[in-house]
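Whether sequence alone determines local backbone shape is best considered at the level of individual chains. In the encoding step, the backbone of a single protein was reduced to a row of integers, each denoting a local shape. For completeness, the protein is quoted in full, as a sequence line and a line of structure tokens.
***
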Amino acid sequence: MEYFAFQWHITDSCDQRCLHCYIFSENNHFKLKEMSWDEIESVLQNCQDMCSKANRVPYFYITGGDPILHSRFWDLMELFKSKKIAFSILGNPFHLNDEVCRRLKDCGCERYQLSIDGLRETHDAIRMPGSFDTTLEKIKCLRNAGIRCAIMTTVSGTNIAEMPEIVDLVVEHKADIFAFARYCPTSTEKSTHISPEQYRDLLDVLWQKFEFYKDSGTSFNLKDHLWTLYLYEKGLFTIPENLNEEIIYDGCNCANCHLTILPKGEVYACRRFESNIGNVFNEKLFDIFTGEPMNQFRNYEKFEKCSKCELKRFCRGCPAVTYGYSGNFYGTDPQCWKQVS
């Protein structure tokens, strides 16, 4: 049975004010919201009901803000433990220590994702002073407790030149997983732009890094779907024969196998762009997922460029990044270098 992923934001509270944060990027006076315990219990039941109807197994990515700052965080952890529910956490490093990590492991936490968004000066400018060193310190803390540590980077014009050294750093500190995603503009600010040629060159450099470190113990998650295009052009990915034209095999999972739930109950098709499709507090998630607002993100023939590409059922770039640049989910991925007639 396949998993269905829920990215569940239980609180807006956070120690940081990252420059690329969806919560604080537009309004620093945003009123912070924390889900009540009754709301948490109802959301969990709604998720389980949906997966029962869809014949899927729920998997939760608990995040915020920083989820550890939720006043009932440990109650939720114990609830997951009692129900034997699989989950990972996407959070900050500041409240982690040996005891906290051991407790998380005891509750069943499989993976904890931290962020490194540049070398020390760049990272701390994006997040907060001291964040860089604290993050590196907590990799060992997590691994000692038996929790897999994932490092995520948001790549933009600000830090693209530092990406190869970030890979070196992650391997040196023995992180279990490394991945990166592209910055999604949250306003008309485009100074962080990367050209298609620059991005293709970056993938080439990083692929060489990944090959060099393939036996290091760090696994490299090719999260960005433009990796499919890159590997296709290198002959390392081939399109299978006898494809079922009705099936989407890979690529962007928006409207496919995940949903995002925000502290106020809003359900997003994807957190990386404005895609509110319902509210978990007063609607069934199964109805939201199978409903017409979600169906608009499954209309693959509307993609202006991808619908004409032979990789349509395997790639489609990142529509959220496209939306951030143009306001058009179906537009051309701003970093896609492929020429399509």
In short: The mean pLDDT is 93.
